[in-house]
Amino acid sequence: MVADGGSDIHAMLTRTSVRSFQPGAIEPATLAELRGIAETARVGPFGNRVRFALLSPDAAERAEVARLGTYGVIRGASLYIAAAVAAAPRAMEDFGCCFEQAVIRCTKLGLGTCWLGGSFDRAGFARRVELQQGGVLPCVTPVGYPAERRHLVGRALRAFAGSDGRKPWGQLFFDGDFSRPMAEDASDPIHDILRCVRAAPSASNRQPWRIMRDESGALHLFLARTTGYGRWFAGVDLQLIDMGIAMCHISLAAAELGQHGSWTVADPGIGVKGLEHIASWTPTR
To answer: What is the pLDDT of residues 224-256, one digit of tens each?
Structure first.
């Protein structure tokens, strides 16, 4: 993973999940920036505040951190970013959006990350971040310099999750209505925005987002939910977090391209059975 301090789009298109990390400390300037990421609370597009913490144990605590949560999934990481949000309407979408912003910043620093939504000791991390009553700790990520080679468990998990595969363009994006799959066209003004959505991480790589562009240019974001999936922990909905990640990618890519807009939650009345409207991004003229 190569640091690229300028482009969010480059980071979104090139980031991959990292499960094996180099031993040793992060160089001081990068560590200072990482601490800045963890010390900055963020507010999502729906107004929920997400609080971050960087777990940076000393040598005596590292064995405990290793036990905290990775069940052999993560190797070599001694730093983790955790985040919490109060249980509230739209909290999962705001969490996904804010946490992905932090992940993208880490990517631009040349650091590896891996969203963990199930394979970590949730109670152990909650104690370390002093989770407040009514709060939820949906996900954490290890952070550090990627190892030269993935370890065997990491390779197997990546293959199991289908992490290298992406759904075809026309299964994710639609023009005018859901009977018209969108053709991929590099000259389309929203092409790079949608590329970033298609590249976004999601739980088990299920890519549950569907986007329909209407005649005004608005992008209507829908959830194609996998029945029974991602609600294994109280207050946590992994697929709503995925939708927040997609919102993050739309916002960051559009801003970099100079295409400004805002999010609304009013149902546009264009849905189809099996799709749940999450939000609509409306460009400002």
So the answer is: 999 888 788 888 999 999 999 999 999 999 999
Q: How far is CA 113 from CA 109, 140, 152, 169, 201, in A?
A: 11, 9, 18, 26, 11
155 is written with which tokens?
Answer: 């390779």
User: How many residues does the structure list for the chain?
Assistant: 285
Q: Distance between CA 31 and CA 182 in Å, rounded?
A: 42
Closest CA to 117 of 158, 58, 54, 69: 69
Residue with tokens 């001694």: 78
Question: Are 85 and 94 a contacting pair, CB within 8 Å?
Answer: yes
Domains and CATH numbers, the chain: 8-150 (3.40.109.10), 169-283 (3.40.109.10)
Task: Return d(Cα 174, Cα 211) in angstroms, integer.
Answer: 6
Indicate the pTM of the whole model: 0.90
Q: Which residue has the higher pLDDT, 78 or 71?
A: 78
Q: Residue 245: how many CA atoms within 13 Å on its side-chain side?
A: 27
Percent helix, strand and coil across the chain, each rounded to 5?
A: 35, 20, 45
- 248 contacts 187 by C-beta, under 8 angstroms: no
Cβ atoms 215, 176 nearer than 8 A:
yes
